[in-house]
Design a protein that fits this description.
The complex is a heterodimer of chains A (152) and B (386). With 152 residues, chain A is mainly beta. In chain A, 7% of the residues lie in helices and 31% in strands. Chain A has a five-stranded antiparallel beta sheet, with no helix packed on it. A three-stranded antiparallel beta sheet of chain A has the order 2-1-3, covered by helices on one side. In chain A, a hairpin with a 6-residue loop joins strand 1 and strand 2. Chain A is globular. Chain B is built from 15 helices and eleven strands. In chain B, the strands form two sheets. A nine-stranded mixed beta sheet of chain B has the order 3-2-4-7-1-8-11-10-9. In chain B, strands 5-6 form a two-stranded antiparallel sheet. In chain B, helix 3 crosses helix 15 and helix 6 crosses helix 12. The longest helix of chain B is centred in the middle third of the chain and has 17 residues. The chains are: A mainly beta (152), B alpha/beta (386).
């Protein structure tokens, strides 16, 4: 081997982690099993946060007031992704193309980053009404929502 | 707080693969060049600051191994990591150390050796409860925000392509730049592969191997060692809430960069940025972002960014040349990219910019951008603040 030749090191790994959700995220995830989406509302600025979290970053107030959020809303941003990039859940490339969007669910003020069923850019626009398509067997995770599709 | 200046800069040749050097050797290349430029020896250093992103170069604790390249043994040494702002934040941390009187001479080295790691793995291992199921990396995140910016401001793909062309043509005059494309045209940018609508391959920054270093000095040390120090007139950093969906129309509102710029301009006495600044090195990972930053940095009125680039105002021979180095669009060793912005701004003040020198530059802007969650703004000047 010479110095300008890169050393190829193969390192197949099967890694698992355990993470603690915290109480707010736990309640949100448990709710998903029953197709229930809830946000936390700040008593200072009134902003309804998804994902729910313990503290409003702007007001520094503890968030305690849960509010119901619909599983449909309005598309606030969109793109059609054309690269098969790594899926952090599986470690495998995610098949492309696929639609991505930021969805402002009715009853929330922040937007939800998620997938879109539509992959034709001509049929996507900001303001489009969309609704969640749920997985058959709910597991209490954000991907219990498979993607969003045009509503109506 | 006392005055602080940059008295030397150095960087590597940035490339998609620097197979000729190890990670510490890459760091040493930039550190050695910066020390030579500043006219100081390794023995003159009081402390070392490293900037780098974890998980991007295939080894844990990269700073443990890279410290050797930065002359860090036996000295205070720490690392700053805040995504794309790692480099600018590392510089700001060194400014603070020197301004506080802790040290007289500090070496900052930012580096990344992308070719030895899997940046996608680092990006994919995001928040496990929310982001991980739906994250689409830097390109996806930007494409979403770009869709909002385009809808609201009416920016065209041709205007974005002009930014991409300007960057790569400028890079052709920078011997350190990764993508040097002197003949690139708008048509070629528009014909490049669509990555995520409306962002095309040539609208995006590359992944690069590279390192960049600066030598930061106290006022007394700077006056003694440097003919024309680049004085730090202002350095501001702002953080944002954690999720992309928390930020309403990110590229339009851009609270972090707007707030940091406002505070930095006030401290540095910059009233009309376009006229008062002589050169800018801004952190633009995607062509559209440069247009958004023009607005956030107050270089033009809201919605006028497209016209600014069309009119050549930010070209090398324009009123305010933006990114004579070719910017992040031409070289992106992430941990180094912010240091490169500051070093290139300092280089302009030092008057050592070679073919990319802006004649007589005496006030320079450098910015950093980290995910959507950090922004840094640094103003450098040839005159020490009164």
């Amino acid at each position: 081997m010479i110095a300008s030749e890169a050393l190829e090191v193969s390192a197949p790994m099967d890694l698992g982690w355990r993470y603690c959700s915290g109480a707010a995220m736990e309640r949100f995830l448990v709710g998903l099993r029953e197709r229930r989406i809830e946000a936390l509302r700040c008593s200072g600025c009134g902003r309804r946060y998804l994902p729910p979290r313990p503290l409003c970053g702007d007001c520094r107030l503890h968030l305690r007031e849960w509010v119901a959020v619909a599983d449909e809303g309005e598309l606030a941003a969109w793109s059609v992704y054309r690269l098969p990039i790594l899926d952090g859940r599986t470690g495998e490339p995610r098949p492309a193309p696929y639609g991505i969007g930021l969805v402002r669910l009715d009853g929330a003020d922040t937007t939800l980053n998620h997938f879109l069923a539509e992959t034709d850019p001509r049929r996507l626009r900001i303001g489009l009404r969309v609704r969640a398509v749920w997985r058959q067997e709910l597991r209490g995770a954000l991907d219990d929502i498979l993607h969003f599709e045009a509503a109506g | 707080m006392s005055a602080v200046a940059i008295i030397g800069t150095g960087q590597t040749r940035h490339a998609s693969r620097r197979d000729d050097v190890s990670q510490p050797e890459l760091v040493r290349e930039a550190a050695e060049a910066a020390l030579a430029d500043a006219g100081v020896g390794p023995g003159d250093l009081d402390a070392v600051l490293l900037a780098n992103m974890e998980l991007f170069e295939g080894r844990a604790l990269p700073e443990l191994w890279a410290g050797e390249g930065a002359y860090a043994a036996g000295r205070p040494c720490m690392k700053v990591a805040t995504g794309g702002t790692s480099g600018t934040s590392g510089c700001i941390a060194a400014f603070h150390q020197v301004a506080a009187g802790l040290f007289d001479v500090v070496l900052v080295v930012g580096y990344e050796k992308h070719s030895e790691g899997h940046a996608q793995t680092g990006m994919a291992l995001t928040d496990p409860f929310w982001d991980r199921a739906v994250a689409s990396g830097a390109v996806g995140n930007f494409a979403l925000s770009v869709s909002q910016y385009v809808a609201e401001r009416g920016v065209t793909e041709e205007q974005a392509a002009l930014v991409a062309v300007k960057a790569r043509r400028n890079a052709a005059r920078n011997p350190h730049a990764h993508l040097q494309m002197a003949g690139l045209t708008v048509e070629e940018v528009l014909a490049s592969r669509m990555l995520a609508d409306p962002v095309r391959l040539l609208d995006m920054c590359p992944q690069s191997d590279g390192a960049c270093a600066i030598v930061v000095a106290s006022a007394e040390a700077a006056r003694r060692r440097c003919r024309r120090p680049a004085w730090v007139l202002a350095a501001e950093t702002r953080h944002e809430q954690p999720y992309i969906g928390d930020i309403d129309r990110r590229l339009v509102t851009m609270r972090t960069l707007r707030d940091a710029a406002r505070a930095a301009y006030e401290r540095a006495g910059v009233r009309r940025p376009l006229a008062d600044l002589d050169v800018a090195e801004i952190y633009e990972p995607v062509s559209y972002a440069e247009l958004a930053w023009y607005e956030a940095l107050g270089l033009c009125a809201e919605g006028e960014a497209g016209r600014l680039v069309e009119g050549g105002v930010t070209a090398m021979d324009g009123e305010l040349p933006v990114n004579p180095s070719g910017g992040v669009l031409s070289s992106n060793p992430v941990g180094a990219s912010g240091v490169i912005r500051v070093a290139e701004a300092a280089l302009q003040i030092h008057g050592r910019g070679g073919e990319r020198q802006v004649e007589g530059a005496s006030r320079a802007l450098a910015t950093g951008y980290g995910v959507y969650a950090w922004a840094d703004v640094v103003v450098l000047g040839a005159q020490e603040a009164a």
